[in-house]
Amino acid sequence: MRYFLFSAALLVAAAVPQSSNLVVTPALAQDESGFQSFLAGLRGQAERQGISRRTLDSVIPTLSYNPRVIELDRAQPGGATNSPIPAFAPYKARHVDAARINRGRAKYQQLRGNLSRIERETGVPEAIMVAIYGHETNYGSYTGDFDLLRALASLAYEGRRRDLFTAEFLAALKMIDQGVPRGRLVGSWAGATGYPQFLPSIYLRLAKDGDGDGRKDIWTSESDALASIANYFVNAGWRPNVPWGVAVRVPARLDRNAIRSKLVSPRCARVHDRHSQWKTVAEWKALGVTPIGYPVPRDSELASLLEPDGAGQTAYLLTGNYRVILDYNCSNFYALSVGLLADEVAR
C-alpha cells in the first residue's frame, strides 16, 4: 500500500483492525471536538473543488476522529539516517517463500488470458503484475478494513502530513462522485485500497477497466486490478523487454569507493544512496561482476550495483525498470522481492 509516492507500501503496511472498545477520555473528547471543526474546513475545500453536496452530505456527518490511525502513523519508521539497515536475506525468506511463489504461479495460470493481453498492450511483464499483486495483498487475501475517509480525515487533522492526507481525502470524495460506492472505500490505515493498494489520487489518475464492463473495480475484479498495476508501471516509465535486474557475484577486489554514486535522489535518498554509479552490463562484467541469475540484461544496458547484505553476499545489477518498481514502493527490500518473486512465478 505501501514509502509509496509517499509511497504505496509503507502505506500498505499492515492492515491493523480498528478497535471497537474505544475508551472516551477527556483528551479524546477534545480531539473529537477539534476534529469536527476541522471537518467543516475540509467541507469548504471540497465544495470549492466541485465535489457534490450529495456526496458531502452523505459522508461528512458520518466521520469521527480515529486515534488508532494516528498511533500507527507515528509508529512508522522515521527514516533516521543513523539507524542500521537490516539484512535483506531474512526479508527475502519471508516474502519470496514457497507459499507465495506457488500461489503466484497458480494465479499466473488462472489469469493467463488477461495477463498476456495486458502485457501485449503495455509491455509490462505478466509476472511483474502478479508479483505486485502478491506483495500488496497476498493475491487479494487481505486488503485492509479501515474506513478510508475516516482514516484520511483523521490523519489530515493530526497535521504531520496535512497537505498529503487532505489531498487524498478530497480524492476519495471525488471517487464517490464518480460512482464508487462508499462501502468500497476501505483499506489500509494510511488510505491505500483495493487489490493494488492504490491511494485515492492514484486511483483517479491510473485505475483502468481491464475487463471491459465500463467500471474500474480494483476491489473485486482481478482484471481491473492487474490492468491498473500495469498502467501505473507504464506511467512510471517501464521499458518493455528489459529485465528489472539480475543476481550477481562480486569479486572481493572490486573497489567500492571507485563506483560510489555521486548523485543525490530528490526522494527516498537513503534508498537510492545504496546504489552504485551507472555502468553498462558489459562494463560490470569487465570489472569481474558475474551474473548468476536469469534473465541477464543486454551488455549495452545501463545498470547500477546493489549489495543489500554487504560484500561477499549475493548482489544485484539493477536496470532502470527496477527504479519503476521503487516508484510503486520506495524500498529496496520491497523492489528486490517483487523482482525475485516475478522471476520465480514465471519459471
Oligomer: single chain
**Radius of gyration over C-alpha positions, nearest whole angstrom:** 22 Å
CATH superfamily of the largest domain: Bacterial muramidase
User: Strand percentage, roughly?
Assistant: 5-15%
| N-end to C-end Cα span | 27 Å
Which structural category fits the helices and strands?
A: alpha+beta
**Number of DSSP E strands:** 7
Strand order of the largest sheet: 4-6-7-3-5
The secondary-structure element order is HHHHHHHEHHEHHEHEHEEEHH
Top-tier CATH class of the largest domain: Mainly Alpha
Question: Which fold name is given in CATH as the topology of the largest domain?
Answer: Helicase, Ruva Protein, domain 3
Low-confidence stretches: 1-24
Précis, in short:
The chain has 15 helices and seven strands. It has helices at residues 26-48, 53-59, 67-74, 88-95, 98-110, 112-122, 126-137, 148-158, 162-177, 200-206, 222-236, 269-272, 281-286, 320-328, 332-346; strands spanning 146-147, 186-187, 245-249, 279-280, 290-291, 302-306, 315-318. A hairpin with an 8-residue loop joins strand 6 (302-306) and strand 7.
Write the layout of secondary structure elements.
Elements: H1 26-48, H2 53-59, H3 67-74, H4 88-95, H5 98-110, H6 112-122, H7 126-137, E1 146-147, H8 148-158, H9 162-177, E2 186-187, H10 200-206, H11 222-236, E3 245-249, H12 269-272, E4 279-280, H13 281-286, E5 290-291, E6 302-306, E7 315-318, H14 320-328, H15 332-346
Antiparallel strand pairs: 1-2, 3-5, 3-7, 4-6, 6-7
Helix pairs in contact: 3-8, 4-15, 5-7, 5-15, 6-11, 7-11, 7-15, 8-9, 9-10, 14-15
